[in-house]
């Protein structure tokens, strides 16, 4: 139980930075959608950030996970593993970032965003910094410096949010003469209306640059070196993981990269394809609630399960963790899907027509989270090639379904493709895992919660309530009833916890009475 508590505690701490960070970033969605009222203005922002995710995987080559594996296996050799992994990533980042900046004019022409060469250069620098910092952040996690990790992440997010508000609200309003007009000459030196949504990239870049100051001690002992025999070992382990991550990203970003190009013009009356991409990309951000739960769990779970790999109780622990992971994710799915009428108010009216995709995207992320959980079997058994095989199948499904469904269903087709791919990957991973690393998962419980939640969401959506003051309490009541039903089903699990809590309360009351 103490081991389980440690994982839960680490997940909570990592979740602080991940959840609060994503929530603060989500708080920028109203700012972005209300400042840029034409959805097409944010199309390049949606598309370029999708490429950021792909490039980050290519820059790091899966060496973050390799560092976890080899640092845990030989703690006494940790600094050498750190030097090797960081040296490789640093070399790749410098070379690739320089190449992208030099080729920026050709890249913008190919993507259909002429004149945005500066944005491409900023994106390249963002990726380069993120890649280099990935290994020091991994070192903090291996060394259990959770608070240091969380502090740096939170400071970065606050800087990003602050700079977004500064450029897009404060500077913009002064430049247009809304207030403090005497500052306009000074603001004109740093604010140019032509940059527009490019300030979102600039804010991200400036904030990321502060990592080198915030985490300078995480580079302690670093010496650039290329020990080729050791690098070969690292890459042999990491390369399949990189391919796995890359194929997984195809599942996550194909929709936003392909939607504008595969969507027939005129499928959505009065909207350009860039407008459609802007709408979908910003509604997609509402699925962040599921993604942040998965990410915060992964931050804690990666080093945790590697450290527990030799424990004979590891399969039982993984099964229990997965069960409660599913329960938490199902509650997020129900809570967000039932309250989209409220959450949609954070979007400018022009963007709200895309809210129908959110429940499908949330469910897709739920299955993807389950896949990440049960995928530990091939990491713990060093059979990472299976991960590549599974995610390549998922990527193929995603691409084929997007090509098939986008011309007919538009962005709903994107969401359906993502969901189908996530389900197929989860099923294949589970079946193969039971052959190579059996884990006693409670499959009936997981399916029961997912199916019941899906029915509740579907039935609730059939009842349209225009009055928000009636809709909010109604949807809240449905959520509470579902939580109550969960507590009844899991009463045997909660009884020992409740008994222990009651005993502590009684002991506290007794002690207080004696003092009085």
From TrEMBL:
Q: Which UniProt keywords apply?
A: Cell membrane, Membrane, Transmembrane, Transmembrane helix
Please state where this protein is localized: Cell membrane
Q: Which InterPro entries match?
A: Poly_Biosynth_Transport
Report TM segments: 12-36, 48-68, 88-107, 119-140, 152-170, 190-214, 234-254, 324-346, 358-378, 384-401, 408-433, 445-461, 468-489
Membrane topology term reads:
Multi-pass membrane protein
What residue range is the signal peptide? none
Q: Which domain of life is it from?
A: Bacteria
Q: What is this protein called?
A: Oligosaccharide flippase family protein
Native organism taxonomy: Bacteria, Pseudomonadati, Bacteroidota, Cytophagia, Cytophagales
